[in-house]
Amino acid sequence: MVLAVLPLFITAGLGAPALAVGLVEGVADGASAAVKVWSGWYSDRIGWRKPLAVGGYGATGIGFSLLLAVASWPQVLLARAFAWAGRGLRQPIRQAMLAGSVHKQDLGKAFGFHEALDTAGALVGPAAAFLLLATHHGFRTVFAGAVVPAVLAVSFFGLLTKDPRRGGNPVRPPDFKLARQFWRLMLPVGIFGAGNFATAFFTLRVVQMLQPELSTPAATAAAVGFYLAHNAVGTAVSFPAGWAADRFGKAPVLALAYATFGAACLVGALGHGWLAVGLLALLVGTESPIVASVEGSLSGSLVEEPKLGTAYGVLNGINGAGDLLSSVAAGLLWMVSPVAAMGFGLVLSSVAGTILWLRPPKASN
Question: If you average pLDDT over residues 33-45, what whole number do you get?
Answer without folding.
Answer: 86
